[in-house]
């Protein structure tokens, strides 16, 4: 066994959609990648559709993080096999019962996008293992060319970091030749970013968004913009009065507002996942707001959560980023251990929220 390439990821989920047609649909995303690859997701559930209560699982945003796309393909296969066979699932000491599996499928939809950045995956597996961004060409004034935008800095939440953040406070760059964290020419400039925006627009029943990365290991939740606080609502990412103050750790000049109930639920669900991960082989994943890693602008988990705050007509979506395992590309037998951790966490997450009523 070895890591899947992008073609195998695509054929893998196409085969699942054929074999388990009663329990899932293949979803073709509206935008092809920069290098014109078609991107697919799977919608799992006894009933599927845009209005269904939905959790979104995304992988492969960062190309060099090879485990998450594989983990999501195998997770989909495990769930579908268990649903069809009427069985539970076991990952080490983490167990989910057959009843919980049927409850997940009966009550909600799991939208799984295993590889959001296909061109990056191909480039990382074939040319440069350290490649992180997509592969868009960025022409330079001197006639040269640099490639790629960091998709996880390209979303429309405090994207314009030079205006919104304090100087040098955020992990973001407007240098098109920065190898890792170039934010792109404008928010949501990249088709791979717009596919994820489309998922959030189209699946109006979505209430949870989990972006699977590697490798810290940790389970992060909103916000990544700054430390969080629950008592000053006007101190938020939309308020221009606080431009230039965001992103500094440990200060009180600016901290990002979060509703107390949301903070509690984000923490509860993050801890639930970390606890389940621990049962697989005893690994301890840190649980905290994403800012504890470093300040980020334009990240997808914050974008998912920010949409409701920017426009109250949009539903509230809680955002999480799992940073699985300890290395980007470990030997495959270690990758399989990490995949079990991811699967145990995401299945438990789904079982838990399958009993939550949504507005
Ligand atoms: Zn990442």
General description of the model:
- This protein is α/β, with parallel strands linked by helices and 359 residues long.
- The chain has a single domain, classed as Zn peptidases (Aminopeptidase, 3-Layer(aba) Sandwich).
- Helices cover 34% and strands 17% of the residues.
- The chain has nine helices and 14 strands.
- The protein has helices at 6-19, 67-85, 98-107, 118-126, 161-164, 191-202, 260-281, 300-310, 332-353; strands spanning 24-28, 40-44, 54-59, 89-91, 94-96, 109-113, 137-139, 145-147, 206-214, 218-221, 228-229, 256-257, 286-289, 318-324.
- Strand 4 (89-91) and strand 5 form a beta hairpin.
- The longest helix has 22 residues, at 260-281.
- Zinc ion binds at residues 62, 65, 213.
Strands of the biggest beta sheet: in what spatial order? 1-2-6-3-9-14-10-13
Taken together, the total number of domains comes to: 1
Please name the fourth-level CATH homologous superfamily: Zn peptidases
- Radius of gyration from the CA trace? 19 Å
Q: Which structural class do the helices and strands define?
A: alpha/beta
CATH architecture grouping? 3-Layer(aba) Sandwich
Low-confidence stretches: none
Encode the helix/strand succession as letters: HEEEHEEHEHEEHHEEEEHEHEH
- What is the straight-line distance between the termini? 43 Å
Protein name: Carboxypeptidase A
Active site: 323
Keywords: Carboxypeptidase, Hydrolase, Metalloprotease, Protease, Zinc
Family: Belongs to the peptidase M14 family.
């Amino acid at each position: 066994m070895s890591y899947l390439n992008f073609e195998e990821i695509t054929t893998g989920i196409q085969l699942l959609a054929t074999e388990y047609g009663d329990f899932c649909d293949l979803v073709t995303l509206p935008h092809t990648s920069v290098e014109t690859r078609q991107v697919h997701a799977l919608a799992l559930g006894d009933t599927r559709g845009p209005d269904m209560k939905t959790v979104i699982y995304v992988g492969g945003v960062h190309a060099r993080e090879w485990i998450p796309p594989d983990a999501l393909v195998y997770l989909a296969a495990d769930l579908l096999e268990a649903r069809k066979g009427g069985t539970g699932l076991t990952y080490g000491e983490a167990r989910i019962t057959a009843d919980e599996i049927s409850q997940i499928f009966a009550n909600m939809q799991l939208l799984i996008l295993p590889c959001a950045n296909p061109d990056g995956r191909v480039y990382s597996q074939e040319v440069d293992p350290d490649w992180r961004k997509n592969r868009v060409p960025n022409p330079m004034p001197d006639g040269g060319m640099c490639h790629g935008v960091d998709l996880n800095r390209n979303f429309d939440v405090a994207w314009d970091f030079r205006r919104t953040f304090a100087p040098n406070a955020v992990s973001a760059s407007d240098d098109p030749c920065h190898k890792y964290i170039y934010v792109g020419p404008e928010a949501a400039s990249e088709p791979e970013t717009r596919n994820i925006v489309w998922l959030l627009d189209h699946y109006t029943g979505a209430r949870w968004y989990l972006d699977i990365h590697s490798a810290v290991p940790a389970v992060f939740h909103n916000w990544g913009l700054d430390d969080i606080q629950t008592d000053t609502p006007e101190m938020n990412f939309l308020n221009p009065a606080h431009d230039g103050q965001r992103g500094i750790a440990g200060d009180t000049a600016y901290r990002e507002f979060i509703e107390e109930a949301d903070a509690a639920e984000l923490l509860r669900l993050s801890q639930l996942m970390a606890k389940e991960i621990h049962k697989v082989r005893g690994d301890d994943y840190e649980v905290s707001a994403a800012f504890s890693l470093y300040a980020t602008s334009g990240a997808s988990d914050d974008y998912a959560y920010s949409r409701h705050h920017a426009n109250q007509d949009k539903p509230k979506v809680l955002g999480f980023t799992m940073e699985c395992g300890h290395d980007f590309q470990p030997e495959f037998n270690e990758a399989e251990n990490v995949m079990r951790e991811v699967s145990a966490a995401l299945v438990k997450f789904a079982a838990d929220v399958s009993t939550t009523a949504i507005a």
